[in-house]
Amino acid sequence: MFHIPKYTEYSKTFFLVIMMLDAFCLYFAFDLSLYESFLSERAISSSNTSFYTIWVLLWIIISLFSNHYNTKTLKRILFIIKSTSKVVLIHALFIFVYLLTTPQYFEIGYLIKIYFYSALITAGAKILLLFSYRLLSNQQDNKVNFIIIGRTSTTHELLRSLDSNQKFGHHFYGFFDGNVSAGNCSATIASGIEGFCEQNAINYVYFDSSVDDKVLERLIKYANNHYIRFSVVHNPITVPFKEVETSVFNNIPVIYGRNFTPTPKNTFPGMKKLFNSLRA
After folding, report:
1. Is the pLDDT higher at 257 or at 216?
2. What was the pLDDT predicted at 12?
3. Are the C-beta atoms of residues 78 and 84 closer than 8 Å to each other?
4. Helix (H) or strand (E) run with residue 244 in it
5. In what order do the strands lie in the sheet with 204-208?
């Protein structure tokens, strides 16, 4: 289903850059195919302009509907190749229908060349972009060294989600207990975590919502003073939704979601009303 991912590690501008990159790669694929077919340099700007436009528009629309530009797809080479193959197959079907309904004629060999170069160049550009992003992310200034304060089922689930980012410069340094116990007061806990952050150059902290208020308040102040980014993780597991999102209204987190637990199939409120009316 077509959707622009709301939560992404890339900016919204990057989404448009990928589409423009595809359009450029497809133009290059057209140009290369024309040269191999011994056509003139200006052929793409004359008789094939409309065909190129339809080709690119179909490619981008199919890519949007098949989530080809989803960041999860762009983060693995195998996913890029599989997604590109899917786009090519669907695109070929639409192009076949288009050529059947228009008086245009193109040689099969020429179309095969365009598809070959289109798939090769677009996938190659994304793979090159992926390796460039990995290289930049793993530079010392761009690494994300993070810790998680509060060990719960939610934070464990968060860590599993973040594991895929290890190749992109994300390094996990461990869990910390953020709750006051008989032997440790809030000041002792906070000072120990602050010392660890300084020793290991921690620049991102995830807090579980169950962390003691005094510890949370002191560490947030420390993070702000030392340019450390932080996030507070809420526990939505007990909420009866399949998908949940959190919004903040005046510093008050509000959890809302979709896909409530379905009503049992053996209850028919509409039919009950009908039978009751018939009985009356």
Report:
1. 216
2. 64
3. no
4. strand 241-249
5. 170-176, 144-149, 204-208, 229-233
Whole-angstrom distance, CA of residue 107 vs CA of residue 114: 11
Give the type of residue at 86: K
| Token couple for 55 | 């080709």
Q: Provide the sign of the torsion angle of the four alpha carbons 53, 57, 60, 63, taken in this order.
A: negative
Dihedral of the alpha carbons of 216, 222, 227, 228, in degrees to the nearest 10 = -40
**Does position 242 have pLDDT exceeding 60, yes or no?**
no
Closest CA to 146 of 176, 114, 105, 123: 176
DSSP assignment of 101-130 equals HSS----HHHHHHHHHHHHHHHHHHHHHHH
Q: Are 247 and 256 in contact (CB under 8 A)?
A: yes
Between 5 and 264, the higher pLDDT residue:
264
Burial class, 165, CB count within 10 angstroms (exposed 0-12 / middle 13-18 / buried 19+): middle
